[in-house]
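Dear support,

I submitted the protein below through the web form. The confirmation email said the job was done, but the results page showed an empty box. After a refresh the structure appeared. I'm attaching both so you can tell me whether what I see now is the final result or a partial one.
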Amino acid sequence: MRCSHIGLLVISLVVLGISDDVGAQDRTNSSASPSGSQYKFVEWPAPPKSAAGFSAPWNFIQVSSVAISPRGNVLVLHRGAHPLLEFDTSGALIKSWDGLTISEGKVAAIPKANWAPDRSRYSAVYGPAGCTACGAHSVRVDPQGNIWVVDATSHVIYKLNGEGKEIMRLGTKGTSGASRTTFNLPTDVAFAPNGDLYVTDGYGGARVVKFSRDGKYLTEWGKRGAGPGEFELPHNVVVDSKGLVYVTDRENQRIQIFDANGKFLREWTGTGGVSGLAMTGDGRIVTGSVVRDLNGTVVAKLPDAPAAHGAAVDAAGNIYLAQLTGIVQKFVKQ
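What the results page shows now:
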């Protein structure tokens, strides 16, 4: 993959309807009242310049995910032209990861009148009904500095090296399923301390699939439902330093915690329909627009932050939220 610098862009903000985030309200227990003063909102990234030399907003379309690169820069995955962009922490554009092809398929909600207990509430539309890079769902960086991109509507997860070259692929591009080699609209990927991988699968599926670091299938767990170890929509996944696996079960409005092999340990209920998860360097977890300790207790609320589709934390503890309204929000730790 070729990485090239982008020239200054003449762009305007476009806000699209959010079909893959229906019901994703990030609510917290009303008894929790930590102050948002632990974090300060700052405008980010720096605006580009128009051809006339004036500031203009970024045309991110829908920002689905953010991650921190091995160099400490911020990767922004969005559903538009140049879907993967890299900025420094001040907000200056560094480059576009050109050559990354993302599906035009669009995750779409199934009307409530057609819901069934044994079927997903989501499907996908393709062709003219989709949009540029609409499959862009999650970007993560593993401890070795490799970049992982989830293309939900292609049913694949790409592993890229630091130069952007594809070095591994999980799933079968263009083929949906629930086997060891296929996914059904996967949503996220996470990394265990020993290098094992966890994939949430996803909008069409209702499972977590575990692989070795070299992509060998190891195990899986989950089925559709609301009981322990069941999922309606496993949307994001992170792993803590002890190897515990945290999965946001968005439509059931909870976060479930498992051991490394999928044994259900406990759940945090009343979280609302959290989409984005990220671990902090000091062993806390960002759940949408709320920071919790690993017992699930709310320790901070990000000021005036709506529900987030994705989240990332830099080395300084600053938090970045990916919003499907087409913006990235940065919260500086005080």
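Response: this is the final, complete result; the empty box was a page-load delay. The mean pLDDT is 90.
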